């Protein structure tokens, strides 16, 4: 006999587990299904983000940054360390421990909020009276009925055509996060978030890293001035980035990987590497969902088709996160998950795509929200811009990290903030002020007149807001 739930969530990544918890808070009887396994075969909820994405990559970025500071920057502070060594196995073990803490935290939250968790792969069986039958395939097969179903099955790494991931020499983000040793030569295809973050990790630890990027411009989605500043910093660090390349044949052999490509000048070139990370984007994951059994509509990309409120073509079936349109970001999935749970309860929440922040956790960090200068120019919108460099910020000087700037774009007539772009220390934290300001439709002057603690990096945001009106105080 199938167990019946008010809400069944398929997938326990950021969108799924948050949707399940919010639905339970609203008084619904909720089940959440997830198949991810840890090394021991036990449940590992949290999706790509927790297991092979956001969380483990930040752990490795932190470890590698400490290593680089010990090697190159501690002496500036009068700290002598002697010979510095890296124990990669211990670093990876620490990363795994951080991941497990997050997995266990989600299981605890399910228990606390009375969400029933099922470990296995969830798939549609058929529509039934009052809902949908969902099968759970795993060590303990189950049959569930959900009156409402939320699909949050995430995304998978996109492979190069004809070059499947073997996670030994051809690596996705998964393999890139569990290398057992520092490769002498590391090639990366794609200079997006994953490419730059993983390139930074292994470059700091001693790898000779080359990134091949098909686009003629670096970080085309980022404000051009900010992207140029970041590229300067990466070049100085020794991260080699080739733009405008066309990748050809990729061969694996006993010694490693050979990548044939055409460079921006149209010249044939070859890159030899021990390992290759392919980071050319992600594709929606509907594998095994059995969408056709109930007539769930997918688009040409394989994404589930939804409206602005995450409703699918089927009554009572919703989808959120990477498996639908919009940016593939964990925090976007979380916001959609909360919104859907509240819509099921009859509420009217709103997710504003224009104020979703983006972050690249390199050093310097890159973070932005809203429109770029090139987008405003293309739209013909009159705007004012203000920038402030971290080299003029007292806290940044004390940290010894003065790379980058804060940039604010505001409407020329109303002064409403249209975009905020940061490259520099702790940009990931600083961007939150900008998101709040834009959600409240603040003007640049609003930020300029708010008292910011001194000394703090956030003063650079205040000064950039003052710069919009050409009245900075410290530059």
From TrEMBL:
Gene Ontology biological-process entries: 2-oxoglutarate metabolic process
Cofactor note: Binds 1 FAD per subunit.
GO molecular function, one term: flavin adenine dinucleotide binding
Taxonomic source organism: Tepidimonas taiwanensis
Miscellaneous: The active site is a redox-active disulfide bond.
Binding site for FAD: 58, 122, 153-155, 322, 328-331
Subcellular location as annotated: Cytoplasm
Domain Pyridine nucleotide-disulphide oxidoreductase dimerisation: 356-465
Protein name stated in the entry: Dihydrolipoyl dehydrogenase
ATP-binding found in the keyword field: no
């Amino acid at each position: 006999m199938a167990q019946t739930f008010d809400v069944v969530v398929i997938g326990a990544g950021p969108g799924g587990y948050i949707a399940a918890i919010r639905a339970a808070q609203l008084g619904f009887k909720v089940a959440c299904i997830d198949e991810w396994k840890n090394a021991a075969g036990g449940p590992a909820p949290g999706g790509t983000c927790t297991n092979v994405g956001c969380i483990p990559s930040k752990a490795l970025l932190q470890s590698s940054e400490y290593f680089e500071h010990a090697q190159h920057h501690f002496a500036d502070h009068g700290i002598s360390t002697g010979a510095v060594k890296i124990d990669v196995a211990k670093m990876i073990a620490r990363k795994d421990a951080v991941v497990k803490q997050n997995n266990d935290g989600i299981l605890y939250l399910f228990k606390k909020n009375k969400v029933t968790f099922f470990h296995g792969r969830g798939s549609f069986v058929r529509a039934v009276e009052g809902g949908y039958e969902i099968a759970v395939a795993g060590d303990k097969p189950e049959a569930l009925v959900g009156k409402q179903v939320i699909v949050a099955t995430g995304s998978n790494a996109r492979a190069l055509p004809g070059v499947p991931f073997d996670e030994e020499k051809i690596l996705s983000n998964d393999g890139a996060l569990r290398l057992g040793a520092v490769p002498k030569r590391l090639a990366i295809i794609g200079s997006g978030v994953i490419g730059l973050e993983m390139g930074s990790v292994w470059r700091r630890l001693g790898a000779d890293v080359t990134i091949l990027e098909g686009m003629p411009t670096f970080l085309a989605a980022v404000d051009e001035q900010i992207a140029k500043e970041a590229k300067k910093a990466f070049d100085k660090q020794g991260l080699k980035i080739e733009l405008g390349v066309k990748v050809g044949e990729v061969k694996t052999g006993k010694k490693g990987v050979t990548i044939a490509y055409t460079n921006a000048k149209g010249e044939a070139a070859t890159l030899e590497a021990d390992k290759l990370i392919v980071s050319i984007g992600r594709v929606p994951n509907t594998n095994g969902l059995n969408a056709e059994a109930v007539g769930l509509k997918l688009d040409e990309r394989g994404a589930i088709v939804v409206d602005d409120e995450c409703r699918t073509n089927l009554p009572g079936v919703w989808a959120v996160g990477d498996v639908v349109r919009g940016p593939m970001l964990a925090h976007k999935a979380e916001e959609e998950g909360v919104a859907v749970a509240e819509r099921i309860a009859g509420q009217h929440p709103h997710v504003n795509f224009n104020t979703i922040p983006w972050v690249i956790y390199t050093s310097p960090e890159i973070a932005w929200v809203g429109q770029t200068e090139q987008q405003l120019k293309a739209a013909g919108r009159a705007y004012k811009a203000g920038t402030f460099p971290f080299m003029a910020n007292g806290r940044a000087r004390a940290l010894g990290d003065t790379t980058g700037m804060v940039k604010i774009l505001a409407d020329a007539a109303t002064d409403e903030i249209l975009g905020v772009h940061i490259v520099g220390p702790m940009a990931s934290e600083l961007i939150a002020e900008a998101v709040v300001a834009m959600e409240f439709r603040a003007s640049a002057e609003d930020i300029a007149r708010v008292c910011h603690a001194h000394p703090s990096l956030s003063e650079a945001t205040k000064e950039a807001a003052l710069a919009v009106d050409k009245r900075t105080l410290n530059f």
